[in-house]
Design goal:
Shape: elongated
Pfam families: HD, PolyA_pol, PolyA_pol_RNAbd, tRNA_NucTran2_2
Distance between the termini: 60 Å
CATH class of the largest domain: Alpha Beta
Organism: Candidatus Yanofskybacteria bacterium GW2011_GWC1_48_11
Bound molecules: adenosine-5'-triphosphate, magnesium ion
Oligomer: single chain
Cofactor: Mg(2+)
CATH topology of the largest domain: Beta Polymerase, domain 2
CATH superfamily of the largest domain: Beta Polymerase, domain 2
Radius of gyration: 29 Å
Keywords: Coiled coil, Magnesium, Metal-binding, Nucleotide-binding, Nucleotidyltransferase, RNA-binding, Transferase, tRNA processing
Number of strands: 11
CATH architecture of the largest domain: 2-Layer Sandwich
Family: Belongs to the tRNA nucleotidyltransferase/poly(A) polymerase family.
């Protein structure tokens, strides 16, 4: 006997009481059988949507796919809503995305036959305290053998809905299953169809792969079955690109190994994606071959490329910004001889205190993922200790003890470029020595600056800003000039 939550049992009970059939179907039965907690519960029934709605007053219904969502009292997120879908069949897959026309099916068997993989088409019937499994495609056998196999003809299934190819890889990563040979060959053959699927649907599967324990294996599989070439061609480009004496792996292998480490450490979704994409700029910036090949500015090109990829896939803006920032900054210097407190404050200013720990995680993943972790961990620890030391220090104009209004008042001037110039100069001084961030000191300094001509003030400000410009911006310029990378 499998444990079915009370909320789901009640839904089934109500449907049966009204004279309908009701089965638990899909991913939740699969998860139950392998002992995983289902993420959501789906019920299939021969009741029509209007009939379901009549039975469950607390529902909402989106007409398109015959699914009525019923709200429960549960606080468990997987049980707050239960989806009840009328048996469906007879699909018309006009654009290979969503069925163009959906028709009711008469039986559960017919409904199951239009679904994707054998392990997903086991139905569970609860009747008078007994349970009965309906398993027309031998899903249990495949579950035991850990195999993902398309229902009936895989070519047909993937031509009906190309997203199923991504779902196969995603399930493989989540469950640790292999893809059965004929199904796998059908994915390779039909991979190009994924181009017709919306980026949002692809992204959602990708997120599930990256979040899974086998994220690295999932990415490798995406490459092997040719899907990656269509989803992230920029990343696939690293395949076979050798590096230099500091690396044992090719660019592609290194990206995947970094993701693997980030996953093992259970780093956040954003750090995992940053690890996967952190060297995506290398194929384009590679100069020379063999042990001395270089990749100057790959972090800048990589950040730009990652932005293109992530925006194309419609990742949330906040995640995009964070990942792009990490990739851009992942080459920070942490050689105890060269790092100064001022430099660390600048790093903190560029990265933001809220992102610095994630940046260190990325660098760690990068280091381990190289296969020859040459830089000793104590160096990174040293830098981390320095960050702790300066974490509370003022690193941005906002953190100064006086603001633009104070400057205008002190100097008796109107808003204008002078105010910004003065702020830049003050910040530069405070980055050098945070004890200068007192009202008295800064006010004194402002009065001194007030003695200068507009021209002199602008000159000092420019110098301050220039020294503040990070080396990467300079590299950025250089790369543009040299390699015409857009
Ligand atoms: P999870 O809920 O863990 O993300 P799942 O397999 O339950 O995975 P759902 O999107 O909840 O996925 O779908 C529920 C069920 O509906 C699946 O198990 C499968 O039987 C069927 N299904 C979902 N998407 C498709 C599809 N694109 N083509 C065919 N059947 C599908
Ligand atoms: Mg599900």
């Amino acid at each position: 006997m499998k444990k079915i939550p009370r909320e789901v049992q009640e839904v089934i009970f109500e449907l049966e009481k009204a004279g309908f059939e009701a089965y638990v179907v899909g991913g939740c039965v699969r998860d139950l059988l392998v002992g995983k907690k289902p993420g959501d519960w789906d019920v299939a029934t021969n009741a029509k949507p209007e009939e379901i709605q009549r039975i469950f007053p607390k529902n909402f219904y989106e007409n398109k796919f015959f699914t009525v969502t019923v709200a429960t009292e549960s606080v468990d997120p997987s049980l707050k809503e239960i989806e009840i879908t009328t048996y469906r069949s007879d699909f018309e897959y006009g654009d290979r995305r969503r069925p163009g026309r959906v028709e009711y099916a008469k039986t559960i068997e017919e409904d199951l036959s239009r679904r994707d993989f054998t392990i997903n088409v086991i139905a569970l019937r609860v009747k008078d305290r007994t349970q009965e499994l309906l398993d027309p495609y031998e899903g249990q056998k495949d579950l035991k053998a850990k195999i993902i196999r398309a229902v009936r003809d895989p070519n047909e299934r993937f031509n009906e809905d190309a997203l199923r190819m991504m779902r196969a890889v995603r399930l493989s990563a989540q469950l640790g299953f292999g893809i059965e040979k004929i199904t796998r060959e059908a994915i390779i053959k039909n991979a190009a169809l994924i181009k017709e699927i919306s980026q949002e649907r692809i992204r959602d599967e990708l997120i599930k792969i990256i979040r899974s324990e086998r994220a690295a294996g999932g990415m490798e599989l995406l490459y092997e079955v040719r899907l990656l070439t269509y989803i992230m061609p920029e990343l696939a480009e690293g395949y076979g690109v050798t590096q230099n004496k500091h690396h044992k792996y090719t660019v592609w292998e290194h990206n995947v190994k970094s993701l693997e480490y980030a996953t093992q450490k259970n780093y956040s979704f954003e750090v995992r994606l940053a690890s996967l994409l952190h060297d995506v700029g290398k194929p384009k910036t590679k100069r020379g071959e063999g042990p001395d090949a270089t990749f100057y500015g790959h972090q800048v090109v990589g950040a730009r490329t990652a932005r293109k990829i992530l925006e194309r896939l419609h990742f949330p803006k906040e995640s995009v910004e964070k990942i792009v920032l990490m990739i851009r900054e992942h080459m920070f210097v942490y050689d105890p001889e060269t790092v100064t407190l001022k430099g660390v404050r600048r790093l903190l200013a560029r990265v933001g205190a809220e992102n610095i720990d994630n940046l260190f995680e990325l660098r760690e993943a990068d280091r381990i993922g190289s296969g020859v972790p040459k830089a000793q961990p104590y160096r990174l620890r040293y830098l981390k200790a320095m960050v702790e030391k300066v974490r509370q220090d003022p690193v941005s104009p906002r953190m100064l003890k006086i603001n633009g209004d104070d400057i205008m008042k002190t100097l008796g001037i109107e808003p204008g470029p002078k105010v910004g110039a003065a702020l830049a100069i003050l910040l530069e001084g405070v980055l050098e020595d945070p004890t200068r961030n007192s009202k008295e000191y800064l006010q004194k300094r402002v009065r001194e600056l007030g003695q200068l001509s507009e021209q002199e003030l602008q000159d000092i400000a420019r110098k301050a800003k220039q020294s503040a410009q990070n080396a990467q911006e300079r590299i950025d310029q250089e790369i543009k000039r040299k390699y015409l990378v857009k």
